[in-house]
């Protein structure tokens, strides 16, 4: 019996060569196993359906929610930044629409050809093109890549004309911050720039999503929160690659608030022009309110360079410039006030009761501390002779003030000047203000670990030695003098306006004494600034500060050496005398003398501010007339 | 296979008036139809199996149209492939089953040699050494073994007394182990599992004693930790770990599983409707037209759609097991049963992966996933199933 026959039989069959055939048994087993397999198949599908039911019925709500959040994204719409205006409504920081060409790889039908068309139409150099190609190759295919920004109308017309040959190329508009007055307001208005790591630490990143710019300095930084606005958002449906498929909901952003400054751009321009080629600063304040009408620091820089990231070369040029254009000379730099401090010294003496305004004092060529050989010399070699307080201010008599300071003593001097607001920040609404320095025994012990010498008190009387002020502080001091003690915090934006405690003198007449002295500086035949006497009444004080005290790491070169050795020229003044409307503080670095250099500058500024047209404008000359 | 045609000429056809009548031609059209019918009758196929398979393929095209972002081109291409695959299946069905077993040992030996060759000189693609480049064609020898393994073992056991004796079981295990290990070394876990399972199914249907089954289960549970530490690659381990906690790495290894579960779960009982699936249409589902097409389908057609699809798969497997039960020859019935169960493994491994109960293994869903090699393999197997059906006898009946 063959195997073929044997396995069909129901009984075991003995085969010749294979022993007992058990195939019928195998067949029975096979039948059972088929049933078992069918059962396994059933259970497998039961498990699959049970699991699917668990996902689709039990956890349906959960997964629906996940699917929903999967497909929706919230995109932030950045707000438009508020603009900045001067007091007459001139725009000093604006947002302008710029147009840029971008290309999307996915939508381009013939990328190579389109790139060559673009290169020719826009005159792009090979570096830009290879950079663009790299970005296109490695970027996501649906992300538009910038080809050129700041398109001219001509270039836009060209692209529009070539549009049929440029699928995937589009013109996109965006807002760019511009400063139309460029250098003129750079230090005050400041500038915006790209958000960097340091900025990220002090801002709420949610609010700045999608925002390109953040205020880096000046008003732009001080009022960042006001200017920035509140971002809106839109809910969009996206695919797994983040590509927007559909917009579901839009919440519009709230644009930033516009800011109106107290600055007057033409006055600022006049002030900057008056400084001429000098490095220096001018601060013009309205003494009645504390409003800053002009705040100039020269030399300056173009803030527009910083908006979209300054190039390494330009930045290096600004940093390496020995005149340091980035340095704000109006409120960050500190200078010895020189003789401009004398009116305040006079007030201090009057208040302390050590000076009688009418009593005559003999001012020789020098002052000596009793028992000391050292001569503290007057600027006028032969001295001033018998002088009253008025004469001393008018002629800027050093010896008078040496004596005054010596008798007053450093403690009372320090106390009064501090009360006057010197040695502390004025509180102007700008970042980076310096506090200046009014020295004291305590200060010297702390910083230099030395005792205070009487000689240092003596030179403090004429604003030399350790004393340092900012030009803003000098303007503030001038305002206080102009208003006879009424003080206002200086402000650029109205919200910062604040009346500060007035300075009350023991006798109201002390103010008149000092102010009259300042009046005579300009209007008496012996006054140091008599040359700027105007039809309206100016009161002022000239000053000179020694060069080496200036905190500058200027690199000297032979040609500039001569001028670098000149003293800094200062002038403070207010006008009109009876009813002051303007207070000015000026420094011209290495300007020589206050009388010859800065006083005529102040006259020009006051002429403009008070609406006076001089028939023969005063000349500014670099000569030492003495203070 | 020769097809004998009988052409009955109508009596006195020569005298018919409308000879060469309005329809033209030398034969009358009912005769033509009869001729065609006769040809179709002679084609050996299983209409029930064919019907189910075509239904699944139709669902595959419908889901694929959605998954391919409504690409008509894709559907055309896919339909063309399906048509070719069905023709291949029918062609294989015409081959007598004797042929499969007569080539089985040669095929098996050849493929194992190829596997060794791949191990030594194979091309590396996607970090795995799977492809053999013969200059004109690159192919995966392991794919052939999905069929070669059950063919070989069925051939082997058909010549031996059944139920298998210890020595035969040992030889069979060797035959399974050698190629499986070679494939694991490539490494291609998915194929290795399918090949191994195909072999084990033959062993099982040959009537392997339950004692052996028990021993085997024990051996596997002992070997599993060994596999974990010595055999499995990091990416494979990662997939297994991901299965237990997909949220641990939602953007990396767990991404597929999470997105697929979201797709299925958000479908609900009735689904979001055809072409309405957000997960697949917004590209959150990777491999939407291939390994994860079931998720696309489940998202749009819901639990009801899944039940219908799974019923069709179950029907195919049921029909395959029927064919095995009715098959006449020993080798044929074992091969048919093994093919049916391998088909089940395909469906289970893919669906289990999509549904989040099995690790991510690259096993396609038969007749749904878009893929060349796997489709060819499956259709050849089904063609063999149809071929085996030709020679059948009822269980226990003598003929």
Describe the structure.
The complex is a heterodimer of chains A (627) and B (399). Chain A folds into 3 domains: 3-57; 75-260, Penicillin-binding protein 2a (Domain 2); 265-277 and 288-295 and 330-609, 3-Layer(aba) Sandwich (Beta-lactamase). Chain A has 22 helices and 25 strands. In chain A, helix 14 packs across helix 16. In chain A, strand 21 (487-489) and strand 22 form a beta hairpin. Chain A is α+β, with helices and mostly antiparallel strands. Helix content of chain A is 37%, strand content 20%. In chain A, strands 4, 5, 6, 7 and 14 form a 5-stranded mixed β-sheet that branches. Chain A has a 5-stranded antiparallel β-sheet with strand order 16-15-25-24-23. Chain A is elongated and about 145 Å long. By secondary structure, chain B is an all-alpha fold. Chain B has one domain (57-390). Chain B has 14 helices and 3 strands. Chain B has helices at residues 29-42, 47-67, 72-93, 97-121, 141-158, 166-184, 189-205, 210-231, 234-244, 255-267, 278-281, 293-326, 330-355, 372-390, and strands at residues 123-125, 128-133, 138-139. The model of chain B is unreliable at 393-399 (pLDDT under 50). Chains A and B meet through strand 2, helix 2 and helix 3 of A and helix 10, helix 11, helix 12 and helix 13 of B.
Overall structural class of chain B, as computed from helix and strand content, comes to: mainly alpha
Shape of chain B: globular
| CATH T-level fold name of the largest domain in chain A | Beta-lactamase
Mean pLDDT of chain A: 84
Low-confidence stretches of chain B: 393-399
Helix % of chain A is: 25-40%
Please report which band the strand proportion of chain B falls in: under 5%, 5-15%, 15-25%, 25-35%, 35-45% or over 45%: under 5%
Number of helical runs of chain B? 14
Question: Strands across the major sheet of chain B, in which order?
Answer: 1-2-3
Query: C-alpha Rg of chain A, in Å?
Result: 40 Å
In the CATH hierarchy, what is the superfamily of the largest domain in chain A? Answer: DD-peptidase/beta-lactamase superfamily
- Biggest sheet of chain B, in brief? 3 strands, antiparallel
Assign the structural class of chain A, choosing from mainly alpha, mainly beta, alpha/beta, alpha+beta, or little secondary structure: alpha+beta
Rg of chain B, please?
Answer: 24 Å
Largest sheet of chain A: 5 strands, mixed
Q: Care to count the β-strands of chain B? A: 3
Helical amount among residues of chain B, as a percent range? Answer: 55-70%
How far the N terminus sits from the C terminus of chain B, by CA atoms, comes to 23 Å
Q: What is the H/E order of chain B?
A: HHHHEEEHHHHHHHHHH
What general form of chain A does the structure show? elongated
Total domains of chain A: 3
